[in-house]
Design goal:
Its cofactor is Fe(2+); Fe(3+); Zn(2+). This protein is α/β, with parallel strands linked by helices and 266 residues long. It has helices spanning 33-42, 57-60, 63-69, 158-169, 185-195, 200-214, 224-230, 239-244, 250-263; strands spanning 2-8, 12-19, 24-28, 46-51, 74-78, 88-90, 95-98, 102-108, 117-123, 138-142, 145-146, 149-150, 177-180, 222-223. It contains 9 helices and 14 strands. 52% of the residues are buried.
C-alpha cells in the first residue's frame, strides 16, 4: 500500500491510498477535488473510491466536485453522519475492498460528530502478528484522533471520545500508522507538555515535529504506539495522569483535558 499526502486548504490533509498491484486508489477527505485528482493522475492510478470521515465542510466539501471530475467514483461515509454526496452509508465494522490487495474496515469513532468514521486499512498479507513488517496497517482518523490530540466534542460526549480513542483506536495493532485530518501536531505537543511536563517522549517528539514543519514536511503518520506514549487524551487511564488533573476516572479526565485544551492559548 502506498499513501500519498495531499495538503489542502490551510492545514488539512487529504490522502490517496493506492493499491500498488492493481493501481486502484481511494481518496480520503478530498476537500480540494481538483488537486486530489491531479495527484491521482500524476501517479497513474484509477481513483474509484472516496472515504469521508465526517460531514464537516473541510472534509466532505469536495465530494460533489470529485464526482463530476471522476465519473463512477463511489463516495462512502458514516450511516448517521449526513455526508455530502454519499453513495454508500457505512455501519461500524463494514469492510470495503480496494483493488486486489487492500481491505478497508469502517470504525465508528463518534464525539467530534455523531457519525464520524475512521478507516483502518490492511493489506491481504498483513496479520495481527505481522504488522511490524514492511507494510504495516494504516488508520485514517479524520478529526477524532490527531497526532498528540483529539477533536472537539462538537456532537458527542467525553464518554464517546474515550470509547473512540482509548477503546476502539487504542486496540489496533501498535505499529498501525495514524493519518489524521489536520496538521496540528506542534501545538498539540506543546499543550501535552503542560499536562505531562516530565514526559521526555513528548519533548522529543515536539523537537522532531518542529524540525519537520521548518522543512515544510508533514508530521503524519504517527503510530498507535507513539500516541499511547505521547497523546494525553489516550493516556487518561493512567492513575498518575488522572491525579495530575484532579480527576478520578478516565472519562472525567478526558473531559477535563479537553476543557483545558479548549481554553489554552499556547
Amino acid at each position: 500500500m502506498k499513501i500519498v499526502h495531499v495538503p489542502c486548504l490551510e492545514d488539512n490533509y487529504a490522502y490517496l491510498i493506492i493499491d500498488e498491484e492493481s493501481k486502484e486508489a481511494a481518496a480520503v477527505d478530498p476537500v480540494e477535488a481538483e488537486k486530489v485528482v491531479a495527484v491521482a493522475n500524476a501517479y497513474g492510478v484509477n481513483l474509484t473510491t472516496v472515504l469521508t470521515t465526517h460531514h464537516h465542510w473541510d472534509h466532505s466539501g469536495g465530494n460533489e466536485k470529485i464526482k463530476q471530475l471522476v465519473p463512477g467514483v463511489k463516495v462512502y461515509g458514516g450511516s448517521i453522519d449526513n455526508v455530502k454526496a454519499c453513495d454508500v452509508k457505512l455501519e461500524n465494522g463494514q469492510r470495503i475492498s480496494l483493488g486486489s490487495n487492500l481491505t478497508v474496515l469502517s470504525l465508528h469513532t463518534p464525539s467530534h460528530t455523531k457519525g464520524h468514521i475512521s478507516y483502518y486499512v490492511t493489506t491481504a498479507t498483513a496479520t495481527a502478528t505481522a504488522t511490524a513488517a514492511a507494510d504495516p496497517p494504516a488508520v485514517f482518523t479524520g478529526d477524532t484522533l490527531f497526532v498528540a490530540g483529539c477533536g472537539k466534542f462538537f456532537e458527542g460526549t467525553a464518554e464517546q471520545m474515550y470509547q473512540s480513542l482509548c477503546v476502539t483506536l487504542a486496540s489496533l495493532p501498535k505499529p498501525t500508522r495514524v493519518f489524521c485530518g489536520h496538521e496540528y501536531t506542534v501545538k498539540n505537543l506543546q499543550f501535552a507538555l503542560t499536562v505531562e511536563p516530565e514526559n521526555q517522549k513528548i519533548a522529543q517528539k515536539l523537537a522532531w515535529a518542529q524540525q519537520q514543519r521548518l522543512a515544510n514536511l508533514p508530521t503524519t503518520p504517527s503510530t498507535i504506539d507513539q500516541e499511547l506514549e505521547t497523546n494525553p487524551f489516550m493516556r487518561v487511564g493512567l492513575p498518575q495522569l488522572q491525579e495530575k488533573v484532579g480527576c478520578k476516572s478516565p472519562v472525567e479526565t478526558i473531559g477535563e483535558i479537553r476543557k483545558r485544551k479548549d481554553n489554552w492559548r499556547g
